Amino acid sequence: MTDVRGLAARLDGARRERRAIGMLSASEPKLDVPTAYDVQRAGIELRRTSGERFAGVKMGFTSRAKMVQMGVDDVIWGQLTDRMLVESAADVASLIHPRVEPEIVFLIGRDVIRPADVDTAVAGVAVGYEILDSRYSDFKFTLPDVIADNASASGFGIGAWHGPRDVSNVGMVLEIDGRVVQTGSSAAILGDPVRALRAAARLATEAGIVLRAGDVVLAGAATAAVPLPANAHVRVTGAGLGSVEVTT
């Protein structure tokens, strides 16, 4: 039987000690997707025991190309905590190999008891970013490995909230130190970020998690992630949604 708590502790130790480890699947050949989500859940519980609070969910593999690359036909997801929220400065020195990507973010305005509730539960949308940091050496992993590692979640930032609106084709730009490093469209997120939002509601509900007022959903990346260096200024802009900035 797989030692779920032991694997979660191994990943949590790697995160806290800024130490890359080998893939769990290398020593746990029976690590499958359901078990990986159990490991993820145990890892979040470790963070909760240290005082962190659930803040929402993040979606992964929301581009068709990434699904094909990983050999999957569904998105993955991870959980966000309040301590992952970045206000204005990100401490990349505490991370192993950080990357950043532009996101569309949804604000939940009322409890989502059933997946069908989510379409009318959105209170706002914003441009945002996610900071990724795989705990595995060389940022290499299998599908169960990345799920166990909470979908590489590390940090996130959110720009100003706007009322619910069509975000199916928002032009997005990622700049580092004034230089454009990625451009794309929110259409890269499953064709429409709302599809990722619905998937988030479905997966959360299946896991027994209720998305509540104030929680957020990071719908997925509009472009590929890029390395996030130290002593940098990052800005993500979304057409009609303004921008969000962070320094490292």
Automatic annotation (TrEMBL):
Leader sequence segment: none
Classification via Pfam families: FAA_hydrolase
Protein name stated in the entry: 2-keto-4-pentenoate hydratase
Alphabetical list of InterPro entries matching this protein: Fumarylacetoacetase-like_C, Fumarylacetoacetase_C_sf, Hydratase-Decarb/MhpD_sf
Domain Fumarylacetoacetase-like C-terminal: 98-246
Keywords: Lyase
Coiled-coil segments on the chain, per record: none
Domain of life: Bacteria
The organism of origin for this protein: Actinomadura gamaensis
